[in-house]
Amino acid sequence: MEKTSIRVLCPKLLIIRNGSGLQWLIGSPFFPQFTILSTFACIHTLGDSTSPDYNKESEDLRTLLLRGFHIIGALVIGSKCDLERVAGEAVDASRRVRKFLYGDEYGGKSGKQDLIGAVADSESGEIRFFVSRGESPTGLESVNSIIYEDDSGKYVWDTGCLLHCELPIKLPLYFSVNSPSDAGEMCLRATEAIIAKLQDSDVTYVVETLTETSAEAPGSVILHGAELNFHADLSDVKHFGDNPQGSLAKCFPCSYFCSKNRVVLPFSVEHADMIQVSLLLNKSRNSAKFAAPVAEYFPASEQTKVIVVDYKLEVLCYAAKDLPVTYAVAQLVVPGLVDQLNSIKSTILPNLLTQNLQLHPYHFCPPGFLHPIQVIYELSYGETEMKQVEVRRSLHLRLGLPFDRPLLRIANALNLSMTKDSAKSNSIRKGSSLLRDVHVGIPSSGVSGGLVSLVQGSYEYHHYLQDGFDDSGWGCAYRSLQTIVSWFRCQHYSSIEVPSHREIQQALVEIGDKDPSFIGSREWIGAIELSFVLDKLLGVSCKVINVRSGAELPEKCRELAFHFENQGTPIMIGGGVLAYTLLGVDYNESSGDCAFLILDPHYTGNDDLKKIVNGGWCGWKKAVDSRGKNFFLHDKFYNLLLPQRPDMV
Predict the structure, then answer these.
(1) In this structure, are residues 130 and 142 in contact, taking their beta carbons and an 8 Å threshold?
(2) Phi, psi (5° rounding) for residue 499?
(3) Residues contacting 627, CB < 8 A, separation 6+
(4) 619, 556, 544: which is closest to 587 by C-alpha?
(5) Between β-strands 145-148 and 140-143, what pairing exists: parallel, antiparallel or unpaired?
(6) Residue 18: what pLDDT?
(7) DSSP state of 21
(8) Which site among 100, 203, 344, 498 is 20 to 30 Å from 559 CA-CA?
(9) Mean pLDDT of 162-166
(10) Are 9 and 23 contacting, i.e. CB atoms less than 8 angstroms apart?
(11) Is 71 in contact with 110 (CB distance < 8 Å)?
């Protein structure tokens, strides 16, 4: 008998030390059995933290989980306990939530699935894994073979792809003004009619690539509802190899719509192959005879009112590239549309007559996740409105995300509005006109045994002479400020445009720090002025470190490393005669050896990354280089401005 193994793809299981609770283990029917892709915390409980409220949990999970991913077990976090008993409870919880989620979708097999039960010690973080075989749900098998995948992104996306489908629906509901309660029933019936129509024999699905295809691959394929099996079990579907036999559309695997000549790009959601699925209703394909269009008139017998329910469906699904496209559409895209339709309907119905809710689905791939998630937001409120903030906080809690940074705002969402032309870049996210993250891939610092602490997230490189503006000799601090503001924009803390030199000066005049004559001048500014501008324009507070001499800066490395590990924002170094942006430190606490990762705003050339790195405009600087030269002057003071990350989601 082959030895049972559990494969872990997520960078880390989302375990909260000294905490307790239950987490759902996420896998995929397209992965080998017992392959853990990610974990979602259970946040709706009855009484203690390990007794889920299955109704609420299943509602949330049905929205969050893309079709193509599913629950394969559960993990219980707690102190020392009867491991096998607790693992059994975890298996039972996952079996029950699967029943709520999937019912009889898998041919009645959802209750017989082999599942994982795991127990984690909240103090040590040690995890013990067990599996429950479907044919023997009462017995548990301890598993000691745990494989942590090195290249998880490749594991997921080299053999997998995304299917995308948008379907806007406007649903007019007519009801008697004397019986407004009828509107809810009419909405239910109309929604059920839409769901039935998605599986109608007259429905047509157009499948086309959004990535470059080979000459042999079809440009698009048309699938008719009559040709699709909407009740098949994915576990019973035979996958294709690279050379399917036959010429019918149903013989094409999803790989036919994926790029055959993949550019060397990271294996990630942003660079995944994506297939577009469009839905059309064909009412004339099987018409037996020619006929003119007919309009029917049904007069209302009493005074009637109309409301229009606006469904904006947008689903994303994950599929193996060797899955036949007919099954990808019938078993993933259509059920995904039904799930989303039901979720939106459930939210709209209670307030159908009193509120015009604007619900819209968005897809995100938060840091640490290998796969997208789906969220439905109410757009009637602003993103800073407390109700919306609480929705995001709840999502951060479930996904194990920090509460001091906005990771699930609309600006963070994947950009799925792609066309064939725009898809040639093979990227889901939009680019930037300025260089970003120029420190990535630069040579090491040369500090032996040091611990590297870096800026977290993206930023844009702002330097002298950009935008056709000559600030050479006086604008270095302005450029450092622009880089810092760009960091807050890139992390979606603010949507404010990066301020120009004049706008920076205007802000300082408005707060009374400078006289009106300062606007339009070439006067220098320092760390203190930068803190005033950040506070006014972004509401960001700053910490300032003062050193009397450049010789003292290495003594601050421990404090600077702590900043990068916890705040992660770029630091402005002012004072002396020049201003710099600090992106990180490499510090050996034992020897005291250290290096500073400097982004130099004094660069005056074009935005050529190779030229910038080779010229040392972005690179590691030792306090004293190999020739004995001091980078930071010993006879000058320095102020270090440490912007603090806002505590917000």
Answers:
(1) yes
(2) -70, 145
(3) none
(4) 556
(5) unpaired
(6) 44
(7) E
(8) 498
(9) 96
(10) no
(11) no
> Strands of 21-27's sheet, edge to edge?
38-41, 21-27, 70-78, 115-121, 127-132, 140-143
In angstroms, rounded to a whole number, what is the distance separating the alpha carbons of residues 449 and 437? 24
Per-residue pLDDT for 130 more than 90? yes
The torsion angles phi and psi of 207, rounded to 5 degrees, stand at -110, 125
Strands 160-176 and 274-281: parallel
List residues bridging with 161 in a β-sheet. 319
The 10 Å Cβ neighbour count of residue 407 is 20
Q: Which residue has the tokens 């009112």?
A: 305
- 639 pLDDT above the threshold of 70: yes
Sole residue written with tokens 């979606």 = 492
| The residue type at 61 | L
Give 395's Cβ-side CA count (13 Å radius): 24
State mean pLDDT over 544-553: 93
Give φ, ψ of 507 to 5 degrees.
-60, -40
Least confident of 52-61, 280-289, 385-394, 398-407: 280-289
Q: What are phi and psi of 487, to 5 degrees?
A: -60, -45
Helical H runs in 303-385? 325-328, 334-348
- To the nearest whole percent, how much of the chain has pLDDT over 90? 57
| Angstrom distance (rounded) from CA 121 to CA 258 | 43
**In this predicted structure, what is the pLDDT of residue 242?**
43
d(CA 521, CA 475): 11
What residues act catalytically?
476, 600, 602
Nearest of 56, 37, 131 to residue 101 by alpha carbon: 56
User: What one-letter code names the amino acid at 426?
Assistant: N
Report the DSSP beta bridge partners of residue 170. 310
3-state secondary structure of 412: helix
Distance between CA atoms of residues 62 and 100, nearest Å? 10
Residue carrying the six token digits 């503006």: 469
Residue 108 has pLDDT above 50, yes or no: no
Question: HSE on the CB side for 204, CA within 13 Å?
Answer: 11
* Predicted pLDDT at 575: 80
- The DSSP result for 211-246, as a single string, is S---TTS-SEEEEEGGG--TT--GGGPPPP-SS--S
Q: What is the Cα–Cα distance from 163 to 224, expressed in whole angstroms?
A: 17
Evaluated on CA atoms 488, 491, 493, 496, the torsion sign reads positive
| Phi (first) and psi of residue 274, to 5 degrees | -130, 135
> What order of strands is seen across the sheet that includes strand 160-176?
220-224, 203-209, 274-281, 160-176, 304-320
In angstroms, the CA 559 to CA 385 distance is 35
> Which of 18-22, 571-575, 634-638, 642-646 has the weakest average pLDDT?
18-22
d(CA 501, CA 504): 5
In 139-179, alpha helices (H) = 152-157
3-state secondary structure of 88: helix
Q: Which uninterrupted H or E stretch holds 130?
A: strand 127-132
List the beta strands (DSSP E) in 199-333.
203-209, 220-224, 274-281, 304-320
Strand partners, 132: 115, 140
DSSP 519-559: TT------HHHHHHHHHHHH---EEEEEESSGGGGGGGHHH
Q: Two tokens at 212? A: 């470059």
Mean pLDDT of the chain: 86
